[in-house]
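We give this protein:

***
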Amino acid sequence: MHEDSKMIHSNLDLRIQESFNIIKRVLKETKVPLIINYSGGKDSSVLLDLAQKVTDNFVCCFAISGIEFMEAIKFVEKSCKARGVKLLFSSPYDYKGGFFERLAQFRRFPTIQSPWCKRDLKFRPQKRMLEREFGKPNTFFKLNGTRRFESTRRRKIYASSAYQNFVRKDFDVSRDFMVFPILNWTDQNVLDYLEKEKLRIEPNPLYEEFGVSGCYWCVFYQPKIYRRILYKRPNLYDRFIRWEGKLNAPSVNGYVWLRDLKKEVQIQRQLIPNSLNIS
């Protein structure tokens, strides 16, 4: 075997064993199945495959936010069916209502500093659903496919002292724990694992079309993402635009108004019909 290939396999084997150890560790501490937060993408598919090699005591879970593409839900359903694993859904109506009901109460859009949408639409509704499914009180260990090397922002976040461990308390849901078995994996580790295990991951058409695959609105999205989506689905954000007017505040990170982005895209469509050069 070529020396470089040996190093690649050696590094991957270390990452795999590290992940196995993390999963085995939390498995000893849980009285209910492990929860795998599953999106159907490469990272969560690697996470699922690793978990399957350790145990069958798990369920996949998808937290419906109410502001995701409908295709995202269908994609996850199809992926779990193909893998033969159980899939549970949570809904924001398991907690206190959907995005716009919560927006009417808070009177402010979620921000990077205060992303209340994650807490109120996903984390807490998921807890309610899991308690209904498995009883309470229970402590749930939720496995996530988060990787520190996925972006510059994540490298900064997961370099802080609060994220040093692979298992940490869930800041938004009491008693529960967030688990990061592939936190140290690089992009190349993921690709090498897919090749090694001959895992075929069906491309997510949403990601190929828009560059995102879950929610169509997010505090972390840059204007270029909204432009891509608006070009194909010009009326998707009309309710957000109405709320921008009600609150007299922009909804996009960087003090950008969706109403302005929609106008820009409408003008571009008129000037350059069939153009896909949205940036």
About this structure: The chain has eleven helices and six strands. The beta strands are 34-37, 58-63, 87-90, 141-143, 167-169, 177-179. The first strand starts at residue 34 and ends at 37. The radius of gyration is 20 Å.
